[in-house]
Each structure stands twice: as C-alpha cells, then as structure tokens.
C-alpha cells in the first residue's frame, strides 16, 4: 500500500507531542519528517516515487512514546501495548506443546473465534511491507464436506490419466487411495474446515509471506485450543486442479500455500514430547 500525504491522513496532538523525533527517525521511506517547529509532518512525495511515499506501516504511530500521533485513520489508543506481551516461557510452552492433530470433533469452529484469529494472523510480517496475503475458508463443515467429495473425485480422475499431485507419484497416490477406500480421510483427517492462504505473484515474496502467515496461524489456532495439520497432499493436488481453485475463488495468478486444516480436536495431549538430540547449529565465521 502506497499513500500520498493526503491519504496517509497524519494527525498530531501538539499537547501530547514531545517533539522527540522518533517517528521521523523510524520512517524508513523518509516520508515523515520534522517541520521547523520540530513537529512531525508528512511530505508530499513525487507520485512516481513509491519508495519515498507512506507505506501505511504505522511504525511512526507505534513508536510514539506519548501516543500523540495518528495515521491512516487509526487511533493509537486502540493499539495493543507491547507491555502486555506474554513472557518468553509462555511462548516457548505453546511451541513445545503444539501437536499435529489428526482426529477432530464433528463441530464447527466458532465464526467469531475464526475471524479473530485471522484478523491477528493478518498482522504477520511480510517481505516489503506489501500486506498482500489473503485467506479463504469454508462457511461451515457441510460446505467443506461437499468440496472434499468433489476434490477426491477430481484427484482420482487425474490419477486415471497418470496425473498425480505435484511431488507425489503413483506409489504415494496408491497409499492415499487405500486409506480413502477404507473410509479414512487421510487427506484432510476429518477436520471440519481448512484455511487456504494465498497471495498475488506480482510483488514482494509471496512464498515467504504466505509461509509466515501459515506458521502464525498454526500457532494461534493451537493457542485457542484448536487442532491443526498441514495438508501437503491436498496442496500439491490443487496445483493440478485449476478448475477447483477457480471454484474456490482463488485467482489464477495467486500462489497457494499448503492448506491448513483445523477444528476442535477429539484428542488432547496433557504434555509435550521430548525430541531426540538431532538439532544441528552451525557457526559461520568469516
């Protein structure tokens, strides 16, 4: 997002502003500067020079010690405070107790909870501050079930013509089909919904951006007590099914990250596992 000075809509409360200059210092595009009185102002950049315009990152508002600055119509009083961050051990515990879920209850995730999760995940970092990641989910488990039936039918049709999911061969497909023929949903694990994360392939780094969003979503779903599993076979199969992607409303020029299925877990784990000593840490010394 690139904004003109008018679109950025910078507002400064002179009663709160201490003229410390942090906001101008933190503005890496130099769109925000100090005027002769020391107050921050947005300079009118050349419209053709997008690098030196406002990128709507809001870093100037976030860094202001007194909350004197508003930009893009955002009130600093509505921002989450860094002082409320969880202790590192709490985040470590979440990461170490997160488990892949392959068994789900037959119930929908609350739409309100899902929307809250996605709004937070929408704040995940992105390359170049492009904020281009988009999300697609199903309205309920019935809609997802209809998609799964059509998806599996199309995968089998492709296989009959020797077309297999990208990165999976005939042997892999045979193993999946064996499980599906037995009534086991080895692709989506019986989950009631799936999160599809995608981004336009015309700017930034769409592979990295969607990958970061996937990681953030996976952790936050688990923080809410929900289960998740990355459906790599499904993601690979969708690359061979452009018609289904179109039905899902995912543009042809969008990169689709591995689907993340989610739902209320049927089985919970009271503790984490203890990994074997397989971690390799190398030090590069120049």
Q: Can you put this structure into words, describing what you see?
A:
The protein is of the alpha+beta class. Helices cover 34% and strands 11% of the residues. The protein has ten helices and nine strands. Strands 5, 6, 7, 8 and 9 form a five-stranded antiparallel β-sheet that branches. Strands 1-4 form a two-stranded antiparallel sheet. A hairpin with a 5-residue loop joins strand 2 and strand 3. The protein is elongated.
Any key phrases for this structure?
single chain, 286 residues, alpha+beta, five-stranded antiparallel β-sheet, 9 strands
Give the topology, please.
Elements: H1 5-8, E1 11-12, H2 22-26, E2 32-34, E3 40-42, H3 59-63, E4 69-70, H4 88-97, H5 111-121, E5 134-136, H6 141-160, H7 170-181, E6 193-200, H8 206-223, E7 227-230, H9 232-238, H10 242-247, E8 254-256, E9 260-263
**Order of SSEs, N→C?**
HEHEEHEHHEHHEHEHHEE
What is the straight-line distance between the termini? 38 Å
Instruction: Characterize the main sheet.
Output: 5 strands, antiparallel
| Number of distinct helices | 10
Mean pLDDT: 93
Write a compact overview of the structure shown.
This protein is of the alpha+beta class and 286 residues long.
């Amino acid at each position: 997002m690139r904004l003109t000075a008018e679109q950025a809509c910078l507002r400064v409360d002179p009663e709160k502003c201490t003229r410390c200059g942090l906001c101008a210092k933190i503005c890496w595009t130099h769109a925000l500067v100090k005027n002769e009185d020391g107050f921050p102002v947005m300079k009118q950049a050349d419209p053709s020079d997008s690098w030196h315009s406002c990128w709507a990152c809001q870093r100037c508002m976030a860094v202001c010690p007194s909350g004197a600055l508003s930009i893009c119509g955002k009130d600093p009083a509505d921002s989450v405070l860094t002082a409320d961050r969880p202790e590192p051990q709490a985040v470590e515990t979440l990461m170490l107790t997160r488990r892949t879920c392959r068994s789900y209850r037959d119930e929908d995730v609350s739409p309100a909870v899902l929307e809250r999760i996605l709004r937070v995940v929408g704040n995940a970092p992105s390359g170049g501050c492009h904020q281009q990641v988009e999300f697609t989910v199903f309205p309920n488990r019935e809609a997802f079930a209809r998609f799964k039936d059509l998806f599996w039918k199309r995968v089998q049709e492709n296989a009959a013509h020797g077309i297999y999911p990208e990165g999976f061969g005939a042997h892999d497909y045979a193993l999946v089909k064996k499980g599906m023929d037995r009534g086991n949903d080895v692709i989506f694990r019986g989950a009631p919904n799936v999160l599809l994360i995608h981004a336009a392939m015309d700017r930034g780094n769409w592979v990295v951006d969607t990958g970061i969003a996937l990681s953030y979503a996976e952790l936050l779903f688990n923080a809410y007590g929900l289960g998740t599993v990355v459906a790599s076979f499904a993601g690979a199969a969708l690359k061979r099914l452009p018609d289904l992607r179109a039905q899902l409303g995912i543009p042809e020029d969008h990169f689709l990250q591995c689907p993340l299925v989610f739902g209320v877990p049927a089985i919970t784990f009271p503790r984490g596992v203890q990994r074997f000593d397989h971690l390799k840490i190398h030090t590069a010394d120049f």
